[in-house]
Specification:
Chain B: This is Chemotaxis protein CheA. Chain B: Pfam families: CheW (PF01584), H-kinase_dim (PF02895), HATPase_c (PF02518), Hpt (PF01627), P2 (PF07194). Chain B: It comes from Sediminibacillus dalangtanensis. Chain A is about 15% helix and about 45% strand. Chain A contains three helices and eleven strands, in the order E-E-E-E-E-H-E-E-E-E-E-E-H-H. Chain A has a six-stranded mixed beta sheet with strand order 8-1-2-11-10-9. Chain A has a five-stranded mixed beta sheet with strand order 3-6-7-5-4. In chain A, strand 10 and strand 11 form a beta hairpin. Chain B is α+β, with helices and mostly antiparallel strands. Helix content of chain B is about 50%, strand content about 20%. Chain B has a six-stranded mixed beta sheet. In chain B, strands 6-8-9-11-10 form a five-stranded mixed beta sheet. Chain B is flat, with a radius of gyration of 32 Å. Classes of the chains: A mainly beta, B alpha+beta.
Amino acid sequence: MPQDNKQDIKAIIFQLNDEEFAISVQQVSGIERMQHITRVPQTASFVKGVINLRGVVTPIIDLRKRFGLDAAEFTDSTRMIIVYMDEMEVGLIVDAAYDVIDIPEEAVEPAPEVVGAVDVDYIEGVAKLEDRLLILLNLNNVLTDEEVRALKTVEG
Amino acid sequence: METNEYLEVFIDESKEHIQSLNDHLLELEKNPSDLTMVNEIFRSAHTLKGMSATMGYQDLADLTHKMENVLDAVRNQQLMVTTAILDVVFEAVDQLEEMVLDIASGGEGRKDVVRLVEQLNAIERGEALSEDGSNTAAPISESDQQSPSNLASTLDEFEMTVLRESNDQGYQNLELHITLREDCLLKAARVFMVFEILEQSGEVIKSAPTVQDLEEEKFEQSFTVLLVTKEKAEEIEKKVMKVSEIESVKVQKFSIEQRPSQSDTSADTTKATEEKGATAIAEAPVKQEKDTAKKAPVSNKTIRVNIDRLDALMNLFEELVIDRGRLEQIADSLKHIELQETVERMTRISGDLQNIILNMRMVPIDQVFNRFPRMVRQLAKDLGKQINLEIEGAETELDRTVIDEIGDPLVHLIRNALDHGIELPDVREQKGKPREGSLKLNAYHSGNHVFIEISDDGAGINREKVINKAVSNGVITNDQAENLTEKQVYQLIMESGFSTADKISDVSGRGVGLDVVKNTIESLGGNITIDSAFEKGSVFSIQLPLTLSIISVMLVEIKEEKYAVPLSSIIETAVIKKSNIMSAHNKKVIDFRGKVVPLIDLQDVFEVPGEKLDDEYCSVVIIRKGEKMAGLIVDTFIGQQEVVLKSLGNYLTDVFAISGATILGDGQVALIIDSNSLIV
């Protein structure tokens, strides 16, 4: 990590549909291959279930469902990114996770006013990096129920 | 000075000393003439003062010092123990506790105690005026201040007593003259390390210069310490020399007789006792060596372990239990005799290990009970009631996790009993009861459970009042009210939003009702029942599991999914014919041993994907919650197993009918069914 530029955000890049997303490495505690997921009944639809992560029962969120994307078959490249924040440890299912890069702060722009039809506040910003466009996630809003409730009201 | 690594020890020990202060003060209040109690109190206060000064918590040290002065006056019989004095001392102890808690939570332990210090000063002064001159100890120590280098001359009466008595109890008094090397950089740090060592070996009675001065490096190269210890002088010397940058350590026996002017000026009685003390010293060395040889190993049989480490051990062991399960499965399927035997042996050993680890986590409930005498005293005072608290079974042991949770509910129940239960003295007299009400706390083991009972001989629960309130609050209807049994009526007071107090007092009515108590206890897997006789008193009885982390379950299968039902809530399992299922109010019920039991199809409740089995028979787990029963329809029974209870994490906090999860032998997660929430 270059010492001269402390503003860099080191981030894990993952793919969902054809879009690339970024989460700060500080919030990521590991990336796991798919394994058996135990369904937990009567929870939010995007809660896929729980797994045994080295002895710790860890909830898993299907990020496609969470973002309202179409479901897709799990493939060899499907991964669970284990994130840790506010004492919550949660796994996020993504299509693929493949890169760790430094994003200079000046490359980050606030999220566009409208993304699709729904105003989504789990997007922290967008980073333009040469020819790539990375969507920076605000994990807080991915995980908390605020957004869930908001989604529900949108769906009516 | 870098003291962080000592902070935990400091906090633990301070808490212990504060507890001991509270305990002994309560004892003292009962027997105001018991001077051994005062000595105990003084010793705790003195150690606390020393520790906090060493750690740099000045406010704490100052307040303790003031308190010590008052206690000293009591000890020297210049001051009679009165409730008024004890109130102030108790308050001081409270403040000390708050400071320690503040330090524990990362604060500085600072607090404005000016008023309290003034009160303490006033007590001390008021005293000095009335007993003017009759005390010999004070003037002597003052006059001796002229030669501060002589340790013996600065001893106060209490310290003298400790030194005198030490021999009788098999201790010896040592005077250590410690010189630091000239190039010593962190003098205060070295002093601190030396004191650490000395305090492990015995008790530091006095130092010259004072601890504060040493702390602030207000000394040259050497200092003198007076130590009461059971260890040999050479041992101590060796230990101290291990601290780096120490030039020399001179250890010599300390005799009170070294005090130069003492023998002439002091009263004859003091002289006599001192002479006795001196002979004791002469005899001491011989006796001493025998004692150390015998007693040393005994005194070191316990160690203080951080609870986090025990938790870590427990977690690792849980992993082992899971792997053990996996091995058992593999051995079973391979049918390899030697492997099976080895696994069996391993199962037995790990079973024993499990017991040991669980026992290690067991803590006497005294840790919770010990704060109640103090609390009851204060509450009784506030409420103008007279209450005698009896505690039984304080040695009963409970898992640490349960201990941590049970304190608040108990506090609540005790407050409740004092506030609503026990009547004012005058009222009690009119009813023909003794003016002093009695409150009993009783803990005991029974089977896999711990029972805690809180009983009082107060007014009891007024059935009519409870029913009226419940009806007016809409908790029950008038018709229902008539058919309720006594017990059911009492249970009503634990419904949410229920309070029988006519007026909200300072003690209760804090917005939390008994429903919170009930919820906490149920969340721990226990239950609470109330028994009461009007005008005679009430008994609140709590039942709790011994441990929360490992439970026996029945594993069942629904389609591809495995669920665990806690054995504690299962009555039995049964296979019933489909044709025996009846319908009542559109609900499936069966006749189970003459009782109509509703059936719950778990596949429906948990929305398990897959076709329904169309069998002639179906498997049912009969569960109960109190008097109520229900049958859970499952596909297959897998069997009984010990599992490690795990939470679903902070993200999934409130899942219907699921109380947690466990990891099975094959590494997969199975959910644990909360049968309480399935029975309405």
